[in-house]
Amino acid sequence: MEQSKVRSARDEANSPTSKLVQFGADKPLKLGSGSLLSPFQIAYQTEGELNADRSNAILICHALTGDQHVANVHPVTGKSGWWEMLVGPGRPIDTNRFFVICSNVIGGCMGSSGPATIDPATGKAYGLNFPVITIGDMVKAQAMLVDHLGIDQLFAVVGGSMGGMQVLEWAHSFSDRVRLAIPIATGARHTAQNIAFNEVGRQAVMADPDWCGGDYIEQGRHPAKGLAVARMGAHITYLSEAALHRKFGRNLQDRNEITFGFDADFQIESYLRHQGFTFVDRFDANSYLYLTRAMDYFDLAAEHNGRLADAFRGTKTRFCLVSFTSDWLFPTEESRMIVHALNAAGASVSFVEIESDKGHDAFLLDEPEMHAAVHGFVNAAARQMGIGE
Amino acid sequence: MEQSKVRSARDEANSPTSKLVQFGADKPLKLGSGSLLSPFQIAYQTEGELNADRSNAILICHALTGDQHVANVHPVTGKSGWWEMLVGPGRPIDTNRFFVICSNVIGGCMGSSGPATIDPATGKAYGLNFPVITIGDMVKAQAMLVDHLGIDQLFAVVGGSMGGMQVLEWAHSFSDRVRLAIPIATGARHTAQNIAFNEVGRQAVMADPDWCGGDYIEQGRHPAKGLAVARMGAHITYLSEAALHRKFGRNLQDRNEITFGFDADFQIESYLRHQGFTFVDRFDANSYLYLTRAMDYFDLAAEHNGRLADAFRGTKTRFCLVSFTSDWLFPTEESRMIVHALNAAGASVSFVEIESDKGHDAFLLDEPEMHAAVHGFVNAAARQMGIGE
């Protein structure tokens, strides 16, 4: 994509180039907090064609800093889709065969209603007046989109990290509407350490005076420095010590000597700075607060007196879980806990732990074993149902 | 200690209540960067008595946010010594038997020359005009203090984390002056992941507009928010997932329900905020930059073409290394690498990996196995040398 075609994040947040569905006063979103969000809109992309009996729809759920541009060029960054290795024509999730839907989560900043959205009641950006949302709210909104598309049952719901939380929530709240659930590199709750890292990120954003108590859009400012720090810290947790050692080690920048100063001497430093600075051009700082908060609040077992198995009793959904050995944000143990609960609930479960040194980010990368696992699982069920190749 | 007796960090930085040695123009500190630091001063504490043949001195080296108040009440916080479980009368390092020295590192902020020190040449705080220093520079300055105290050879040098780096540097640079070296929870180099975490902390400080390009003291400001964020992030790396889970889990604050907001709902959040906010009252933001930088630069093998064993060839120092199973900042692997190098160099080495779920911070906590290991090692050698009990 040429640079000239790239749109600003602000444009995209309020008048997205994606498909859009708007829910008016008659269809409010009833939030976990008890408040109503109304009106609201969902921006989404689709790939492939819905078949005649509407049985080939796959919903992809995105992670914290992802969006609906799973398999198409991103309108703001100009980069290709974030999961195009998994989703596309001839890919493990083959868009020649399946109708793929991916929507920006509620609270996000790529066109679905979120804190950067103009509140029609005031004509100003919501900022912190946007209600705090949960993973359950994101999924409820997605269910309304799926209704809107005239689809009763999804063939599969697939996602990693925060996307995986949504997959679990779908299987929990809308069990009858999900044939296959594929939660990848995720957990049924956010751990204390994960909450801790999120809190540091939020404090970094809120410490930035340009955050203006959340009102930066109306005040024409941008808490870029705070958001960049938040992103840098989080980014470390997406990688692994082994991957950092392999990619960067203690390598210095091209001048190849230390400067005895505070510039980026080490390659890992300039890499992280780059991650921070590019992120702030495409992401809304308040969305970062809202989405990390939704992750913190997620705890499927808590709604069932701590018994995770009770979240899935009687389910007919078939599960395939994937974890990665070097993922320390959502370690295998978190997936195993879900597998045990699903077993206890009598559900059909496959589970694969993939050997990788790439850390949590592995789910977004070229991991042939993951692609093979997803493809095999999806393919076998599709064949059974007679969904044509 | 009563609150009224507590002094301000700024007072303590420039006119410490500790003992002080000043080195004038005739005794500059030749820095690793090539510059000279002159004049400079070292603030230090001692416990116990130096014996007649000056053979019972133990130097304790402090970690990043520690200082010389290893076994005495802290003049700023009013808290007891940071290693008083290890050092004191009747303790594993028994001050009835040993003469214990602990000095604030060069670059620190508790009385030794650092960026918060008033530069006598200008009458203003150094700020970023203070030269960037290395672990080697800290140790050179300590050696000048040890000279000043009339001690040729230290019975032992002991420290954890950044303190352990200094122990290794002592054994490397002043091998003949160190009988026993006890590096705890440390490494012979900072890893890419550790550099990454330090860099995020530095960026958090420097993103704070109250940092003023390092000139905040002269401008009467204080980058408290940025430094608090840095501390919060670093603090997570000092603990372990298991310890966080055991201490906090997903426990909520006393109202025991989530607020659907951005206040501290979870106990881990308020704990981290407390860690951040109390830290900024006792620590200088520029010192944080300088000391993290010194850690990043540390790489003993690099001076020997990557052969760590060559850093210790011919050494007569006896080593005892300690690591903790749940320490992911300086994992056991880093200690084992040092042990292998020492073995290859033909040195005398003991090594103990201690089972603990407390993470990196274990070295500061009540870890009887660590205390027993240090006591046993020190005691056996003292008995051999006829240092009285």
TrEMBL record, chains A, B:
One MF term in the entry's GO annotations: homoserine O-acetyltransferase activity
Recorded GO CC terms: cytoplasm
The keyword Nucleotide-binding is annotated on this UniProt entry: no
Binding site for substrate: R231, D361
UniProt enzyme class: transferase
Pathway: Amino-acid biosynthesis; L-methionine biosynthesis via de novo pathway; O-acetyl-L-homoserine from L-homoserine: step 1/1
UniProt catalytic activity: L-homoserine + acetyl-CoA = O-acetyl-L-homoserine + CoA
InterPro entries (UniProt xref): AB_hydrolase_1 (IPR000073), AB_hydrolase_fold (IPR029058), HAT_MetX-like (IPR008220)
Gene Ontology biological process terms from the UniProt entry: homoserine metabolic process; methionine biosynthetic process
Keywords of this entry: Acyltransferase, Amino-acid biosynthesis, Cytoplasm, Methionine biosynthesis, Transferase
Subcellular location: Cytoplasm
Cross-referenced NCBIfam families: homoserO_Ac_trn (TIGR01392), PRK00175.1 (NF001209)
A Pfam short name: Abhydrolase_1
Family: Belongs to the AB hydrolase superfamily. MetX family.
UniProt-listed HAMAP family: MetX_acyltransf
PANTHER family: HOMOSERINE O-ACETYLTRANSFERASE
Assembly behavior: Homodimer.
EC number: 2.3.1.31
Role this protein plays: Transfers an acetyl group from acetyl-CoA to L-homoserine, forming acetyl-L-homoserine.
AB hydrolase-1 domain sequence ranges: 56-365
The protein, known as: Homoserine O-acetyltransferase
Residues at the catalytic site: S161, D327, H360
